Amino acid sequence: MSWFHYSLIGTLLLLLVACKDEIPQVDNEPVYKTKNVVVIVIDGPRYSETWGSSRRENIPVRNGLLSEGLMVEQFFNNGVTFTNPGHCALCTGVYDPLANNGSQLPHYPGIFQSFIRYKHQPPYKAYIVTSKDKLYVLGNTQKPGYKNLNRPYFDCGVNTNGTGGYRADSITMEHILHILDTRKPHLLFINLKDPDSYGHAADSMGYIRAINKTDEYVGIIWDRLQSDPFYKDQTTLFITNDHGRHRNGHLDGFVSHGDNCSGCRRIELFAISPDFKKNVVIQTPYEQIDLPSTIAELLHFPLPYGKGKVMWELFE
Ligand SMILES: [Zn+2]
Ligand SMILES: [Zn+2]
């Protein structure tokens, strides 16, 4: 073999080594109009009280926005129907039976760490803002090679640092609007807790009122996005849930959740996007793990461990 052959083989070997750890090359060619994604997870309403009620009387804002957006009629949590596992599936694309008390990090990295890593973003451009303190775990992972790296900013619970317990959704709303104004995150992930809290308190009126209130908050956030030139017409908004609650007549009904009954599994997915169809109801069944894959497609970054599929049918 000549010097040329040796150097050719050497170059190829170097290339192989260089490529081994690099997941798909990310170029910065704009693919979609979407430059920002906001996900609002409303904690624990049943589908039967959101889109499933005959007049959609508890979600008038979302129902009114349907002419600009789309609704996935068959959307499911097919994993563990508790708060942390549900949110984890929405972020990582993996049904990870995580501890529900915030003591365990997801086994796989989610959209935040992937977005920061592969799009070379500063950490505050991905932001987790949650009423429940225990959801701060979504910004990190146990996975070697990702753990403690490329972590997003978070603002979770009473002390904002993932401790101190749950805070009121009204406080979380103030923080969301402030962060939108001052940080301009490209990827913002929100949890509003009240339907779940009133459900567990067996307060049926409070539960319905909380669904109405969080719907009002959706309207405030959407209006804010559309009145800010940084977000207007280049932001995709998703509204979904971590889990539902037991169907009526099953165990204690709307008070609890956590098994695989139809009330716990079936949840909502509503979206408004400059890249999605408008004024349609999608009939194909999709599930939680499909959301992060679709977000990764919209913002054009790889999600190496996600097991869901891109919901191509949503795209225009
Ligand atoms: Zn709950
Ligand atoms: Zn159930």
What labels would you give this structure?
9 helices, Alkaline Phosphatase, subunit A, nine-stranded mixed β-sheet, binds zinc ion, single chain, 32% helix, alpha/beta, 316 residues
How would you describe this protein?
- Strands 1, 2, 3, 4, 5, 6, 7, 8 and 9 form a 9-stranded mixed sheet that branches.
- With 316 residues, this protein is of the alpha/beta class.
- It has helices at residues 3-20, 60-65, 83-92, 111-118, 169-182, 194-200, 204-226, 262-265, 290-299, and strands spanning 36-42, 70-76, 126-130, 153-156, 187-192, 235-240, 266-272, 280-282, 286-287.
- It starts with a helix and ends in a 17-residue tail after the last helix.
- The protein contains 9 helices and 9 strands.
- The chain has a single domain, classed as Alkaline Phosphatase, subunit A (3-Layer(aba) Sandwich), CATH 3.40.720.10.
- Helix 5 (169-182) runs parallel beside helix 7 (204-226).
- One zinc ion binds at residues 246, 250, 257, 259, 261, 263-264.
